[in-house]
Amino acid sequence: MNTTQLRAFLAVAQTASFSRAAEQLHLTQPAISKRVGQLEEELDSRLLDRIGRRVSLTEAGRAVLPRAQRILAEMEDSRRAIQNLAGQVTGQLR
Q1: What is the mean pLDDT of the chain?
Q2: CA–CA gap between residue 36 and residue 14 (Å, rounded)
């Protein structure tokens, strides 16, 4: 499981479309499908039901969704914290 797979899954879940998720992430639709497929394979569970052009979350997908959101939020928070440590302190000390 990696962040690119989680981002692809979240985008599809939010847009209910592989094509719109691809546009949102500036990727191709096959790249989104592959990332979601890899995540499903790794979790050994189908996360999305694909019925024609319609996409909906399975029960497993509904269970993974909030966890994926938290994981990505924590990753972003960690990235910001590290960037803040690397920032230079400027100004006068009084």
Answers
A1: 92
A2: 13
Find how far residue 18's CA is from the centre of its chain.
Answer: 13
> How far separated are the first and last CA of the chain, in Å rounded?
49
C-alpha distances in Å from residue 17, one per residue of 6, 71, 79, 81: 15, 22, 29, 33
Beta strands in the chain (DSSP E): 48-51, 54-57
CA distance 4 to 89: 33
Over residues 17-47, the pLDDT tens digits come to 999 999 999 999 999 999 999 999 999 999 9
User: What pLDDT shows up at residue 89?
Assistant: 59
The H or E element spanning position 13 is helix 3-15
Report in angstroms the alpha-carbon separations of 72 from 4, 30, 49, 50, 56: 10, 22, 23, 24, 21
CA-CA-CA-CA torsion sign (11, 14, 18, 22) = negative
